Amino acid sequence: MFNLEQFIADCRAALKADSSHKSVREVVARAVSDPAGVLKGLGEPKRAEVQKLYHAPDLTILNVIWAPMMTVMPHNHLMWAVIGIYSGREDNVFWRRLPDNHRRVEAAGARSLCVGDAEPLGHNIIHSVTNPIPRLTGAIHVYGGDFFAAHRSEWDAETLLEGRFDAERALRRFEEANETYKHFAS
Ligand SMILES: [Fe+2]
Asked: How far is the CA of 18 from the centre of ligand 1 (A)?
């Protein structure tokens, strides 16, 4: 069964051995290879939210639960990340800056993530995330830095122009999604 303290210790040891995402990715892959164990260890997803599981200057571990059909706008992290899916699905669209307008992005690729996938994201990745299924999706997100302190960007969903990442607005999106989900559920 998934043990959070052990998982944190394993991530810390992996980071010490290798400051890139490679060793941490193996730790995440091992965890989500037993999705039932993660569900037991973290609990069944009940509502859309971001749970802080561990937070240090060089490592952040989140339990991200996406509402059904929820989408977050393109954003960067400015640190590597590993996303491990233990329930549901995540579709990631990857974006790149336009060569002639660095404030604007265009879609550059996509990756569909399923239960058991552990996807590494590079330092400079810009991505948006959609939960494409009509139930909650649960994912462990590990970041190679202080996720909450970085001065990041997000891109407007309509204009695709760069703006400053607003953490409170991002968290509010989860609450709004819960409201929407209530309507779906009733
Ligand atoms: Fe992200």
From this structure: 22
